[in-house]
Amino acid sequence: MSDTPTPLQAPDLSAATLTTPTQQSDRIELISRARSFLTSPNIRDQNILSKRSFLSEKGLTAPEIEALLRELPLQLPLVPPRTYPQPAPSNLPNLLIGLARIFTWITGTSAALLFIYYRFILPRITRTYEARHMLIKHQSSLLSRFTDSLRTLKDTQESSYVELPRKSHPAEDSRYAQHHTLEALLAAIGDGDPESIPDETLLRCALEELTEPKDSGAVSTEKLFHHFEAKVLWLQGEDGAQRQGKLWYTLNTNPVFTSSPPPPPSPPSSSSSSAPKPLPSELLWKYNPPQSNIAPLLPALSKLKTSLQSRSTIPSVASAATQNALQTLSDFTGYITTQTYSLNLPIRGGFGMSTSVGLGAEEDELRREIRALKGLVLNRRSFLGPGIGDSFPTLEKIS
């Protein structure tokens, strides 16, 4: 089928229906109008079914509609319209509203929490912190006062006990004190256990045996332990090494053994630096017998005894004045009591009750004063010691 439409033959389309020339011309005009309708740009791309239904409504028959549709050029694929559908509404406002609500909730909650914290919690924390701070400060002040008291007590003790003897070194066992050489010491032990000998005794005997006047009485560490290995055989081996360690510890910690550096080989020059620290094997050791600390104590004890005797002979001024006052009051009370009861006693009434008939105002006043003075003396007597109160006469004895 060619692209150019061929005109329809009137006799072919309406051979059976058209009978008059007028009807034939109307039919041809209707077909031409339908053809121009179908070729219009607005209708060309419409659906075929809608075209058929529209032409049939206008009075065209099915063969005429088919002929008109075949005359139309081939339809190209439908191009999608350039007007795209309207996009969905944006969710940004809703998102912003949600964020604003969340921010409002967070702000309100934070404000409420801050109010609760600063109104109720923070004051309690502050009071607790201040209480702890004050407690720590009080404890620090007490500790500082206690430290000052201890320092003062220590200074007082040092100044007061300066003449007292120091702690004396424990005396050496009398079984070993009489020996001055290792040979004599080992011979005295005999078949006994040689390891029972104290370390101090071994060191003393070795130092006394090796002491020479030309060396100012000092022995080097190396020479001392070589002498031990030569004289005492059980100091060799592993057990002997342990015992030598104990001897070295005793040599450094016991106050009766003193060390000194070896003398320099030549006088040091002014430009040379300080002498290096001597090695432990080069130290010189010396034995210093412990001194007795009893002699410095005797003058202090004599001075204390004299002071106590002088204080015991001097009577106390306050105690003497108190005794004189109590003696005077006791004598005066006894005198007043004697004078009072020497008067005529009043007639006793019935039921054992005394009456004041026959007594004047002066006698009543005197009796009241005597009772007050008696109570005062009894009260003063109750506060005295057992030794003082028994030495004075009481009112019962006087009366």
UniProtKB/TrEMBL annotation:
Sequence ranges assigned to domain Peroxisome membrane anchor protein Pex14p N-terminal in this UniProt record: 27-71
Cross-referenced InterPro entries: PEX14 (IPR025655), Pex14_N (IPR006785), WH-like_DNA-bd_sf (IPR036388)
GO function terms (MF aspect): signaling receptor binding
Sorted UniProt keywords: Membrane, Peroxisome, Protein transport, Translocation, Transmembrane, Transmembrane helix, Transport
Coiled-coil positions: none
Disordered as annotated region, ranges: 258-282
Pfam families: Pex14_N (PF04695)
GO cellular component terms attached to this protein's record: peroxisomal importomer complex; peroxisomal membrane
BP terms from Gene Ontology: protein import into peroxisome matrix, docking
Ranges annotated as spanning the membrane: 95-118
The keyword Transmembrane is annotated on this UniProt entry: yes
Subcellular location: Peroxisome membrane
Primary role: Component of the PEX13-PEX14 docking complex, a translocon channel that specifically mediates the import of peroxisomal cargo proteins bound to PEX5 receptor. The PEX13-PEX14 docking complex forms a large import pore which can be opened to a diameter of about 9 nm. Mechanistically, PEX5 receptor along with cargo proteins associates with the PEX14 subunit of the PEX13-PEX14 docking complex in the cytosol, leading to the insertion of the receptor into the organelle membrane with the concomitant translocation of the cargo into the peroxisome matrix.
PANTHER family for the chain: PEROXISOMAL MEMBRANE PROTEIN PEX14
Record-stated family: Belongs to the peroxin-14 family.
Annotated protein name in UniProt: Peroxisomal membrane protein PEX14
Organism: Serpula lacrymans var. lacrymans (strain S7.9) (Dry rot fungus)
Source species taxonomy: Eukaryota, Fungi, Dikarya, Basidiomycota, Agaricomycotina
